[in-house]
Write a structure and sequence with these properties.
Layout lengths: L1 H20 L6 H12 L3 E2 L3 E4 L5 E9 L11 E10 L1 H5 L5 E5 L4 E6 L6 H6 L1 H4 L6 E13 L2 E17 L2 E12 L10 E8 L5 E12 H8 L9 E11 L2 E11 L12 E11 L4 E5 L9 E8 L6 E12 H9 L10 E13 L3 E14 L6 E11 L2 E11 L3 E9 L7 E11 L21 E9 L2 E13 L8 E11 L2 E11 L2 E9 L7 E11 H7 L1 H4 L5 H5 L9 H4 L2 E13 L2 E13 L2 E13 L2 E13 L7 E13 L2 E12 L2 H6 L2 E14 L2 E13 L2 E11 L2 E9 L4 E8 L2 E8 L6
Parallel strand pairs: 5-7, 6-7, 29-30
Antiparallel strand pairs: 1-3, 2-3, 3-4, 4-5, 4-6, 7-8, 8-9, 9-10, 10-11, 11-12, 12-13, 13-14, 14-15, 15-16, 16-17, 17-18, 18-19, 19-20, 20-21, 21-22, 22-23, 23-24, 24-25, 25-26, 26-27, 27-28, 28-29, 30-31, 31-32, 32-33, 33-34, 34-35, 35-36, 36-37, 37-38, 38-39, 39-40, 40-41
Length: 759
């Protein structure tokens, strides 16, 4: 007996194995008809094999399940290998029906028809199918595509598991899969599960549980928008869906956690959001809200989606009630907003915001008792402030803010939190400490940025990376490269236009030198620094001290001893370009006073020129003539600066008469060295000169040379008593001047002295 049983088992095993490898294509027509009756669709099949393992049935390869004509022309499913369980009672009745169909890893197309119903409703609705009973359907590791009419959606489920178990008047559903988009490759989210019942008797009704296991918040957001929102954290969902397919009631909750700095919001580091809403599968609409009717919460959310499969559109909104500003700023920062890392914030935010794909973020919020603080800066405080959100930007309505304890300003502007982070900010004040501008965290205002102290009043606007405005500056200190100490600006009016700066009504001091005037910065010109200044009384020694960093170079002992080449000129000097007009009421050096009526300063790198000099000279209170010409200084020519003057000294008193000198002078160094190195040459003219007791010259004409404090007259012509004498002259170290003259064969010599004040 045992032997017969063993033989039977072996025979059955061999038959089962053989059935898997030997096709039974004579069964194909019957199998195809059975599948068509059960699925209500045309079916094409390949080879058929007998499968005796597990529940006996058939294995069918190369199956294509076509679509119901009402839902389109693309097949409902592509199945590489299908396992079908036979209804044995149907065999006894003389035809073949299947109790179950395992689609394995098939690809399904779920279609929403133009008329409204879905193709799976047609599959499960036995009353409208007028065919055989629907078999239970199973799929493991397959793919589910979605279509709207003939248009395939970007959404699909990968690695999908499906169980459909029809019973009397209802269908039990089980589904699990990984949501994805065809325009995205990377995924980092969990699976989506649906389970419940579908009533097919009378009006269709659904009762489903929907779950999303813990998933990346950023990746889930990319299911909605392929670009994402830069969110960080995890999300999970549990919901119940019930009702008719066109009016499904939704209730449940979403858990959000591990959002960076979410702990600053009222709910802390983990947030549970209740869900209430309505899903219309026919109309492809979903409406969700987190707030129950009559309930007030710090944050309530709304979500609406339309045309879920055909052309997805959606919008989301939030109602905020006294939400900490610091928490919202951290969330905004991690969504891509370019906010300073060390910006500290206090205060509360209330209002509403809505996000729509076509419009972006819109809404209006109000800040109460707000405070923003940057490192090493005074906090900016506002009792209340309103922000309008729309067209990709946030607009601050005119708001009075306090900076520090006393200063106030009115601020308004717009800011784009996304690239390129455009900022349009206007600041208006009746008196603001310039140091408090650091509190705004923007590029410093021209002129104001050069001073660590002082006040300004007026308005300034920062737009497209540049400032414009009109304001006054008072009691400021402005550091200028090349001056021994900062300028002390008593007052000035500033006008900004793009990159250009115009300063008028300037009253300032450089050291002890007071001056008034105007200044312009024109960056696109050859000499961007342009000014016109007027000085009163100026001490020459003080002027030299103030200009020492520009005129003098510190050289060490070895450098001087070994006569080493000078260091390269500093960058500020090499890049300097100045075009300005200067006037000095009285430049005093000892008992000599120079009144510079006008002079044009042209400064190009290491070379500067004072052109068009028009000056008057006094000595010991008496006029000593006038000076006109050009003075040039090469600040980096050699071991020390070199100077050259070309011009004329006119109406200079000399021994009862007047002299005029025209030519050039050169000198090197500074101070006493400058005087010792003076050398020059040129022409002279004189009239009414009492050269000595025996020499009264009605006119003098000649050439001169001056070296090391000594004069030489290579050619000189004088007229005395109606007679003209020619010759030469020179001075000695004791200050005496000797003239050696002749008229024809007549030779004469005259000796005189140089007067004080004449070199």
């Amino acid at each position: 007996m045992i032997k017969k049983i063993l033989i039977a088992v072996v025979v059955l095993a061999l038959a089962g194995v053989a059935g898997l490898y030997f096709p039974m294509d004579f069964l194909r027509p019957a199998v195809q008809r059975a599948l068509e009756r059960g699925l209500g669709r045309k079916v094409e099949t390949g080879s058929v094999y007998l499968n005796l393992f597990g529940a006996p049935g058939l294995k069918v390869e190369g199956v294509t399940i076509h679509e119901d004509p009402r839902a389109g022309i693309e097949p409902f499913a592509y199945v590489d290998s299908l396992d079908a369980g036979v209804r044995w009672l149907s065999v006894l009745r003389g035809h073949l029906d299947f109790a179950r169909v395992n689609l394995n890893d098939a690809t399904l197309n779920l279609v929403k028809t133009d008329a409204g119903p879905w193709n799976f409703q047609m599959l499960l609705d036995e009353t409208s199918r007028k065919s055989g009973p629907v078999p239970s359907i199973r799929m493991r590791g397959g793919r589910v595509n979605f279509k709207y009419g003939d248009t395939k959606s970007v959404f699909y489920f990968d690695d999908a598991d499906l169980d459909v178990a029809p019973s009397d008047g209802s269908v039990e559903l089980r589904f699990g899969g990984a949501p994805a988009r065809t325009d995205r490759t990377a995924r980092d989210f969990g699976r989506f599960y649906v389970k419940g019942d579908w009533s097919t008797r009378g009006a269709p009704q659904m009762q489903l549980d929907v779950d999303l296991e813990k998933s990346s918040l950023d990746e889930i957001s990319r299911l909605i928008d392929p670009y994402g929102f830069g969110l960080h954290g995890i999300v999970a969902m549990q919901a119940q869906v019930s009702g008719a397919p066109s009016a499904l009631l939704v209730s449940g909750q979403v858990q959000i956690g591990d959002v960076h700095r979410w702990d600053l919001l009222p709910q802390g580091g983990s947030w549970t959001v209740p869900l209430h809403g309505l899903l219309d599968l026919h109309g492809e609409k979903l409406e969700l809200t987190s707030a129950k009717e009559g309930e007030t919460a710090p944050v309530s959310l709304d979500f609406r989606a339309f045309h879920l499969l055909s052309s997805p559109q959606w919008e989301a909104g939030a109602q905020l009630t006294q939400i900490p500003l610091a928490g919202l700023m951290e969330v905004a920062r991690h969504m891509g907003a370019a906010l300073p890392d060390k910006l500290a914030a206090e205060g509360a935010v209330s209002g509403s915001v809505t996000y729509r794909e076509e419009d972006g973020l819109t809404g209006r919020v109000e800040l109460r008792d707000a405070s923003l603080t940057l490192p090493d800066a005074q906090p900016i405080r506002a009792g209340s402030a309103a922000v309008e959100i729309g067209e990709g930007a946030m607009s601050l309505e005119p708001t009075t803010v306090r900076i520090g304890e006393k200063d106030t300003a009115e601020v308004e502007g717009t800011y784009s939190p996304q690239e390129p982070h455009d900022l349009d900010l206007k600041i208006t004040t009746r008196g603001l400490n310039v140091a408090d501008m650091r509190s705004f965290g923007v590029a410093a205002i021209p002129v104001v940025d050069q001073t660590p102290q002082g006040t300004w009043r007026g308005w300034a606007r920062y737009e497209e990376g540049a400032w414009s405005g009109e304001y006054d500056v008072q009691n400021a200190r402005v550091a200028v490269a090349g001056l021994a100490e900062p300028l002390k600006v008593q007052s000035a009016s500033v006008r900004l236009s793009g990159k250009r700066v115009a300063v008028t009504k300037l009253k300032a001091k450089a050291g002890a030198i007071a001056f008034t005037g105007e200044y312009r910065w024109e960056p696109d010109t050859l000499r961007p620094h342009k000014f016109s200044i007027a000085m009163g009384e100026v001490d020459a020694a003080e002027l030299e001290r103030v200009l020492a960093p520009s005129l003098l170079r510190e050289r060490g002992f070895l450098a001087r001893t070994l006569r080493l080449a000078p260091e390269p000129a500093p960058e500020w000097l090499k890049s300097r370009g100045v075009d300005g007009m200067i006037s000095i009421g009285a430049l005093k050096a000892g008992d000599t006073t120079v009144a510079l009526k006008s002079g044009r300063l042209l400064w190009d790198g290491t070379v500067l020129r004072l052109a068009g000099i028009d000056a008057g000279v006094e000595q010991s209170g008496a006029s000593f003539g006038s000076v006109t010409g050009d003075l040039q200084a090469d600040l980096w020519a050699g071991a020390s600066p070199s100077y050259r003057f070309e011009g004329k000294i006119a109406d200079m008193p000399y021994k009862g008469g007047r002299l005029e000198l025209e030519g050039s002078l050169e000198a090197d160094g500074s101070g006493e060295q400058l005087v010792e190195t003076v050398r020059g040459e040129g022409h002279l003219r004189g009239r009414g000169v009492s050269f000595s007791t025996d020499a009264e010259f009605s006119s003098v004409v000649g050439c001169f040379e001056w070296t090391s404090g000594k004069w030489k007259l290579p050619i000189v012509e004088v007229v005395q008593g109606g007679e003209t004498f020619t010759g030469s002259g020179s001075s000695s170290s004791d200050g005496k001047m000797m003239l050696d003259l002749a008229k024809g064969n007549r030779h004469v010599q005259f000796a005189g002295t140089l007067v004080a004040g004449l070199p």
